[in-house]
């Protein structure tokens, strides 16, 4: 099961390997010419020019490169595969100096003893992206009818497999347990004018939504564990501290828990607190939370908004109005280290609007609406009774900008073989008023349909050029972040201007400009609507032409077809109706 659902497993540490690393290792192991066709296919697996029909799927590209270099049949068992994957994960976790050499040794053994088809699936296991075409819930349900529910509250694939080995045995009660990460409850999108209808006119709680990262805090005595949101619940305990003597958070919050608290589980948000400004600040404008020192200008602060366990009593099945009282029984708030999330009871849309305006004025992410009688349902979003309201959900509150497409990124899955994300830039004008240079500003990948994307590809497809970081185009200034460099670029005169909406403009060091857009997306129907910079031909003066008088007549495309010269030879189609069917997706790009 751990090989079928590698993205769900947390018992095995991370491999520390992505597509580019694997490509370089395969080139070295098989002694491929770095500039040869096969090596370029691996290195540029997203590019349709290099990888043809398999573009975007590294495992499939590798299969075609390795199939003539691999055994016809493999000899390894499932146990063998798990053994070598354990070795790779362990060596990476221990950060051994010889990690790369050990990795090459393990990969070489795997490649020598597996067929090309087996290697294809092995690569997908390592990348933790199986591309089955079915979701994890479908696989878990096939294993056992209670497997999905148990996984949602434990995030432990091994426990699911061991506890539900017998398909005839059901779990009577599935509970959240200490030091076992669960998949957090989520909220649906909503606008202020929808809240009364969604809550049925009953009282609800309005919470501040901070701009941070979802985090679970598990405590038992002096032992602590922290888990972030995501597949399997990523263990952040080493960063924040497993005891009161280590980490960037635990030493500062341990004494805030009340004397009678033996154990507890808190759900909340880890945010950035500015010791200089004495307030919570946006994570988009500041360093990574997990990389901050506790005594620096910025430090991590935990904002608790729910409690799931207190002194061995599971609270998740209690209504929210009862659970919130237990939070203040667990700890005492410390402004810059651990605090209660602001919560008020309300009944109307007007109160929602007031709180959203307060959040906007204070540069917060938004607000969350929770029905007072809602119980905590792990991994539940729809019909759970929680709703999030953000400024970007309201069209009138969005920032709009016209930006030039200066680069592109190849997509994966349904968007493979096509540029699916775009790097956008702002112009710097020369003294004569014409744009002379463009600065990278943001990256956008949403707000348009697949049909619109294909239409744009048809317009720009012939003008894309491969981006070379060692010899970048003179028109553009790029940022220092390697992952933001595009796969391809386009000359300004061949590009288009698009209208982009975003919740706000924030500081950033990823692009050439010191600011970027937060949550950018293309305005609906605004993909490839404007031609950008006029080309030299467009700037040249047009010759004057003498206008001749002409008779006004019906436009040619509105005239009936002239059939005067057609000779009838048969009436085979008389009385029949002919329908011509075509697909927009069959148009050439």
UniProtKB/TrEMBL annotation:
Its EC number is 6.5.1.1. It catalyses: ATP + (deoxyribonucleotide)n-3'-hydroxyl + 5'-phospho-(deoxyribonucleotide)m = (deoxyribonucleotide)n+m + AMP + diphosphate. One of its GO terms (cellular component) is DNA ligase IV complex. Transmembrane segments: none annotated. The keyword Ribosomal protein does not apply. Keywords: ATP-binding, DNA damage, DNA repair, Ligase, Magnesium, Metal-binding, Nucleotide-binding, Nucleus. One of its GO terms (molecular function) is DNA binding. GO terms for biological process: DNA biosynthetic process; DNA recombination; double-strand break repair via nonhomologous end joining; nucleotide-excision repair, DNA gap filling. It comes from Caerostris extrusa. SUPFAM superfamilies: ATP-dependent DNA ligase DNA-binding domain, DNA ligase/mRNA capping enzyme, catalytic domain, Nucleic acid-binding proteins. InterPro entries: Adenylation_DNA_ligase_IV, DNA_ligase_ATP-dep, DNA_ligase_ATP-dep_C, DNA_ligase_ATP-dep_cent, DNA_ligase_ATP-dep_CS, DNA_ligase_ATP-dep_N, DNA_ligase_N_sf, LIG4. It comes from the Eukaryota. Pfam families: DNA_ligase_A_C (PF04679), DNA_ligase_A_M (PF01068), DNA_ligase_A_N (PF04675). This is DNA ligase (ATP). NCBIfam families: dnl1. Belongs to the ATP-dependent DNA ligase family. It is an enzyme of class 6 (ligase). Residues 293-428 form the ATP-dependent DNA ligase family profile domain. Residues 530-551 are annotated as: Disordered. The keyword RNA-binding does not apply.
